[in-house]
Specification:
Elements lengths: L2 H13 L19 H14 L5 H10 L3 H12 L4 H15 L13 H13 L4
Helix pairs in contact: 1-2, 1-4, 1-5, 2-5, 5-6
């Protein structure tokens, strides 16, 4: 897995976390990702990873048995990245988390999203 794919997968996993209360309209067929989060992922793709094919992304994303497996593969792919690249990944994850209002949280970031981003930061050695 390359940097671009790892970034997009971690962003989408942030959007797909299960939330207790969604206040924004969900994507059709989604259980937790909002339209705003999907739109933000499209912006990140266009700005940061324009060369990634959505078909490749969907195939790779679906090839993992669980969210944990995907996260581990992404973290492994990013271990040798520069700190600037790791910051770009976590900042992109935060953009997704802040894209829609959830749980009446003033920062728009749900506790699940916050913990996931914090965990990825720790695994990437960014304490």
């Amino acid at each position: 897995m390359n940097f671009d794919m790892a970034l997009l997968i971690l962003c989408w996993q942030t959007a797909c976390l299960s939330h207790n209360h969604e206040n924004e309209q969900l994507l059709p067929g989604a259980t937790s990702a909002t339209k705003a989060e999907s739109a933000e992922l499209d912006k990140i793709h266009d700005e940061v990873t324009p060369n990634v094919s959505w078909d490749e992304f969907n195939n790779l994303y679906a090839s993992y048995k669980s969210a944990g497996d995907r996260t581990r593969a992404c973290v492994k792919a990013l271990q040798s990245a520069t700190n600037d690249c790791k910051i770009q990944v976590t900042n992109s994850m935060m953009r997704i988390a802040n894209a829609s209002r959830e749980d009446e949280n003033k920062s728009n970031m749900s506790p699940e999203e916050y913990e996931f981003i914090k965990n990825v930061r720790t695994q990437l050695g960014m304490n």
